[in-house]
Amino acid sequence: MDGLRRHKSMFLLPGLLTLFLIIIFPLLFTIRVSFSGWNVSNPQMDFIGGANYTAMLHDSRFWASITRLILLAGGTVLIQYLIGFGVALLVWREVRGRRFWRVLFLVPMMTTPVVMAAIWQTIFHESLGPVNDLLGMLGLTRIPWLTESGPALVALMTVEVWQWTPFMFLLLLAGLLSLPKEPFMAAAIDGAGTWRTFWKVTFPLMAPVSVAAVVIRLIEASKLSDSVYVLTSGGPGSSTETPGYYLYIQGLRDQQTGYSGAMSLTYLVLMIVTLTVVAALLTRAFKLKGDS
Amino acid sequence: MRSRLYPIFKYTVIALWACFVAGPFFWAMTTSFKNANAVQGGPTYVPWAQYEPTLTGWRNIFGGAGGVDVIDPFLNSAVVTIAASAISLALGSLAAYALSRYRFRLGFIKNSDIVFFFVSQRIMPPVVLVIPFFYLLQWGGLLDTIPGLVIVTVALLLPIAVWVMVDFFNGIPREIDEMAMLDGCPPFQTFVRAILPNSLPGLTVAAMFCAVFGWNDFFFAFRLTFTEVQTLPQAVVALNSSIPPWWTLSAAALFGVAPLILLALWVERLLSKGNLSGAVR
Amino acid sequence: MRSRPYPGLVAVAAAAALTATACTAQNEAQHKPKEKAALFEPGSQISYEKYGKNYPATKVRDVPGTCSYESISRKDYSGQTLKIISHAVPVIGEPTQLHAKQFEEITGGNVDVVNVPFGELHQKILTPLQAGQPAYDVMFYPSLWIGDLAPHLAPVPEKYLNTTGMKDVTQAYMDVATWDGKVVQFPVDGDRHYLKVRADVLKDPKWQAQYKEATGKDLKVPTTWAEYQDMAEVLNGEDLDGDGKKNYGSAEITKRDDLTFSAFISRAAPYVKNPDVKGGVFFDVETMKPLINTPGFVRALEDMVKARSTWAPGGANFGLGDEIFSFGGGQTLLSYSWDDAFIQAQQPDSRIRNTVEAAPLPGSTEVYNRTTKSWDRKANQAAYFTWGWTSAVAKASSHQEMAFDYLCFFSNEANTALDLTIGRFGVNPYRTSHFDPGFWEKQGWDKDVAEAYVNTLSGMEENPNRVFDLRVPGVNQYMSALANGVAAALAGQESPQRALDAVAGEWAEITERIGEDKVRSAYRDVVALEDKS
Q1: SS3 category, A34
Q2: Scanning every residue of chain C, which has its alpha carbon at the shortest distance from the alpha carbon of A42?
Q3: How high is the ipTM of this complex?
Q4: Chain B environment of A120 (Cβ under 8 Å)
């Protein structure tokens, strides 16, 4: 038994300790700095009690950005899941040019987000970009993509969907390809149609992959900030500001390290709680679906 | 009835999605051959017919006057990405194997909590990590060095590696371990001889995610280096001036994605062979 | 009970502090150059031609002096490395690289340049300085950050202050480079906001008639913001230059976290800078009470909100780059900001070359008086010395001589003359000798265009009614808050008054956080610059 314990630690500890050692100082630093007035002209670990936290409670921009994130991250991940799953189903089995489609659909994920955001800005440029030009050719009205809050949110979500649907697509396609054959044969014998087979067999079998993919995407999507920075810099007004971007402005651009520390920790706790709840809910929802 | 309409529907959807996916690349491709006058003249798509193409954008990313040289940054990016991915995969698959095969219990902490600890590292907003990382690397004299960057990148990639590999190992039948054990292999040998060879697909997916996130990291690389070490995203962003050279940015974006497309081809190969079965579950 | 010690953190902090002191101690030993033979004859011909076809074939003469090609090539810096941070390529970043390459060639030293986008520059420069990490020897940055950076900068040595080039820098830009009586920034660029118009449209009888009919006034270069608005409004959405595409009224910087704050200050300057009232535009320097929500600023913001209808599509999200493309590309009639868009319009391959004109920023017919709390009815105009690019050497650098030699070489007469002609370099006139229409005519500018340009720039130097940037520690926080308020009003989320009230509230908090005395003493210097004129 001792041998086993030693072995299992030997496997786990290198990775766990490495991560722990890299991450512990930043975490402690952030906790400590959130109680200090560290800012651009006074970069010091003084102690100002919970002043940063009190200020944060009254910071409507911060809370508004969090509410907005729920819409943005939740919305984009849902769309990514639907499209990713749909497209994965389409190129799952017999389809002409399968390899080409599969590779093509993976490529957007491999581009550098900050660089792609700059390209997207040129795409959505209202007079020099192609989107409005194409809309004009089709006889549709031009859309103020980046200067009105509704279209600006759509533009941001478009960029996110473009960049990260491939992530969802890959996970789901890999999941589909690894499904066992037997349940499908059984369904075929029962004479189930395509639709029924999907709901009764494919979807339930895909539930674990789906939950994992959605949760990991939610984590990544919650950091949304590069595209906001480049496309709208939070505007018009503050209608596209996300916590990631607001933290960037406060923490790095204005260098209010103490205050941004307080916001980050709060954000971290909120996210961990939310994600745990979401993961639990999703697991249950998918299970129920499968059982019914 | 259904069977006749379905292929039309299928190929229409695939084609539409393909257009959306490829559109930005087409736009970047055509923009990369423009100059300021062609850009200011409004959106155009076809070279020669609509605008006079120039190679300025492409020259600028290969050390042309008024640009940057992307070759050195490319190599730095490659070294950092490969080193950090390799370390993350090694440590990550060991830890994932342990979490998949053994039960850990420490007070209220269970296996799933440890997995969550790994994954949760990706929730932390990068903005707050970067200042302490700066002091940490300064303390170790590792600012503006490749090892320093590798350490930080490992912290970003390890959670992904663990997350992918735990799921993957859970999908490998325990009988394989048991058979190896019965042959008298100690646990580590079992892992190396019996499990790893069966894990190539999972390792591939994990490697791809590591490579994607490592290759494209701008945030940390940018703030933890000064002049000695420049990575590719930094070199590209160095072109984002107050007169934004759309052409050079486009060329750089296309150049940056090229090596990863090879990776995508490889991943697709494994997918097609059905080798990824159980890669993600 | 203050500052509860965390043992781990204290240890790390101590270690960091030790490293820092060790580094500072090292700097006592400054690296010096060796002597070598000159590579250039005095007064030889200089050209950038050999560096690629992106550069003009123009030739100029090396002007003898400390910073000339000839003098610098006598120095042997082999074995030494200079580390430089600069703005993204091309604006200031490209000349930084080019002169680094030349400096390497003629001194044998090694120069590493890193280029960084505007939004990241402040943090990238300041973090290592504050951590005591000698990351960069030379830094190029916007001059308004002097309040944050001054404590870390090496004063420019006497030797470089006495060069012919430095002596020729206009008083305004020497003032901008000075902190606490010491010159700590090395002037390499002079920047200001001015008005840019499409002169060809103004001279077109068709548009003159249309404008007359609509407003009863003659179509000429606007001298007040009200006229600017009228012109932009009446002529917006027409094909003004007959190229088959619609033109628009006004292009201005409106993207929130881009440089909107500078655009807004330009619009506010004539309403808030009353030549009869001393003691600060942004704050009352005695009480440090923010003035940003006083009627003058509110009026400017109301103007800006009204101007929305005259912007090109997407004009409510224009960064500086978009403004440059929009005016410089011939899309808009009017614009105001730095030189870039104007110089872009005047590039040899530009479609609108010599159809543009420069003029001073519009003024107003009344100006707010904060002592009497009423509007003074009189024509007013103020010169806004908007921040420009500057450079400095880190105090912690152990290669200070090499660093100053580099900057002095960067800005020597020959290099500056060539740099001025390359629009994308972003190097704009800052020496008295640059205000010479003949120089610009030689570049192919029409006589009127060159004269109006030079008069606009030199006129600012003589204008006694000046506004300078808020050059205090934490300037980014103030400007972020301001941009946020302006953006909220432009987006219709708040009324201009309420938006600026919120900004004033934030400014008071920022001042409290940074320390009222610290901010006041810095702001006193700004006020002194404004009031002495």
Answers
A1: coil
A2: C514
A3: 0.90
A4: 24
